Amino acid sequence: MLYELVFRALAKYKIQYVVVGGVAVTLHGIIRATMDLDIVVDLTSENLTRFLAAMSEIHYAPRLPVPVEEFLSAEKRQEWVSERNLIAFTFWDGKTKQGVSSGRFNYFSGIH
Q1: 3 state DSSP class of 83
Q2: 40 in Cβ contact with 16 (< 8 Å)
């Protein structure tokens, strides 16, 4: 599976998340081409800290030129939404160009 490394890291770090988008459709048995993995991550600070550790371990980094630690700040995430219309924060492997879009924080306050 294309994103096995990502799923293994999410499981290892016990990340609370759901898969959405094209991969979710495919996992439900409908054939659909997609090149990225969209997930919604629980935005609690503990979960986000583990999520960033998981992404770091597999060498995924933010696609945007911002310090990864800024993703931990609810205020900074809200600023990105209100001032830049950011709806997803993308991590990617610069070598393979595979990406993981996470958060979707303007629509979800987290998974509970």
Answers
A1: helix
A2: no
- Which tokens sit at 6? 């990502």
With residues binned 3-state (H G I as helix, E B as strand, rest as coil), the percentages for the chain, rounded to 5, are: 40, 20, 40
pLDDT 10s digits, 11-26: 999 999 988 887 788 8
What tens digit of pLDDT does each residue of 54-94 get? Answer: 999 988 888 888 899 999 999 998 898 889 888 888 888 76
Which backbone phi and psi does 63 adopt, to 5 degrees?
Answer: -75, -35
Q: Check if the beta carbon of residue 86 is closer than 8 Å to that of residue 76.
A: no
In sequence order, the 6+-apart residues with CB closer than 8 A to the CB of 2 are 98
> Does the pTM exceed 0.85?
no
Nearest to 99 by CA among 26, 42, 22: 22
Tokens of 84: 């830049």
CA distance 15 to 33: 26
| Pairing assessment for the beta strands 17-20 and 36-41 based on DSSP bridges | antiparallel
- Bridge partners (DSSP) listed for residue 91: 62, 100
